[in-house]
Design goal:
By secondary structure, the protein is α/β, with parallel strands linked by helices. The protein has ten helices and eleven strands. The longest helix is centred in the middle third of the chain and has 14 residues. The structure holds S-adenosylmethionine.
């Protein structure tokens, strides 16, 4: 049990919440944990089909969306505030052909100050991948981000946001509710290493729409030695109509809301809220939408 700390001894909800993605451990295991998902990759690639301007992948992380977008021929601005996540993205880019690498501009920047980092009216599509919007903890931060995107997008440019849709059952989870998420081989941490993850629901503050959560990882080495990493963090949830109003307030029109990346009807029970909005301006042509549909199925592998 070398290096193993019991959960109770190391955790408490009085500890400050920080974004786990800032930690190199999370960046290292990120693709092993999320690289299998492909529906959102297909969605982003199909939306970006035929777009000549740059595509902004906001909160790009390790480039799970940015790389397939670049492989599909798009010019991508891959933006994130977490140096450790961007290090992983750069490592993956180094393995790509120069032509692909040249399509990706990696930018360390914050979603709350996009006016200082993104070019004006130069972006054709902005993507806020799953649960990135939830890292914006107040309505002011959310609006700063949306207004920054509104300025960066060309007239008629599109924005998609994917976030969790929370049902009453989620909101009423008992404090301390614990869930074993997985146990898996983790070659990214070394040969013969296994990794398990447990999630703890700390509390939900329905007044401020904030959930406090913990992830507890246990790494078991080939010799059986164990060590633990735990992360306390908070996310802000957003309801469907709140998101629609926020988008309208920040200059987005034609807001469509789906329950999934295949444009399923939205229901809270589905657990996923996918919004697609456009800045005021010319609507993409029928040909462009047709090209997007035709390109579905092309280069849709995830970066993993
Ligand atoms: C859930 S991950 C998603 C990563 C990637 N889009 C994907 O789908 O795999 C959220 C990412 O958003 C980034 N992020 C969170 N808040 C941010 C902020 N205020 N500014 C820039 N990046 C932020 C995190 O560092 C993290 O990489």
């Amino acid at each position: 049990m070398a290096g193993f700390c019991p959960v109770e001894a190391t955790m408490g909800d009085d500890e400050p919440a920080t974004d786990p993605h800032l930690d190199p451990f999370i960046a290292t295991i990120y693709d092993g944990e999320h690289g299998g998902a492909s529906d959102d990759v297909d969605w982003a690639v199909s939306l970006a089909a035929g777009i000549d301007e740059q595509v902004a992948d906001l909160g790009c992380g390790t480039g799970r969306l940015s790389l397939p977008l670049a492989l599909a021929g798009r010019r991508v601005i891959a933006l994130d505030r977490a140096p450790a996540m961007l290090t992983q993205l750069r490592r993956k880019l180094r393995a790509e052909a120069p032509a692909i690498r040249r399509r990706v501009t990696v930018l360390k920047a914050d979603l709350r100050t996009l006016d200082q980092s993104l070019p004006v009216h130069a972006v054709g599509l902005a993507v806020l991948g799953y649960n990135t919007f939830a890292s914006l903890m107040t309505s002011t931060e959310q609006q700063r981000c949306l207004l920054g995107l509104q300025a960066a997008l060309r007239p008629g440019g599109a924005l998609t946001i994917a976030t969790a849709a929370l049902s009453a059952a989620h909101l009423l989870l008992p404090e301390g509710f614990t869930q074993d998420v997985y146990r898996r081989a983790a070659p990214e941490l070394g040969s013969g290493v296994t990794l398990s993850r447990m999630d703890i629901h700390r509390w939900t503050d329905q007044t401020h729409q904030i959930r406090r959560l913990a992830h507890v990882y246990e790494v078991t080495g080939p010799d059986g030695g164990r060590r633990q990493h735990h992360f306390e963090y908070a996310v802000r949830y957003t309801t469907r109509f709140e998101l629609e109003h926020l988008l309208a307030r920040c200059g987005f029109g034609r807001v469509r809301v789906y329950g999934g990346y295949l444009e399923e009807p939205f229901t809270v029970a589905g657990g996923l809220l996918v919004a697609l909005a456009q800045t005021e301006g010319a609507e993409p042509s029928r040909e462009r939408r047709g090209a997007a549909a035709a390109e579905r199925g092309l280069v849709v592998t995830s970066a993993e």
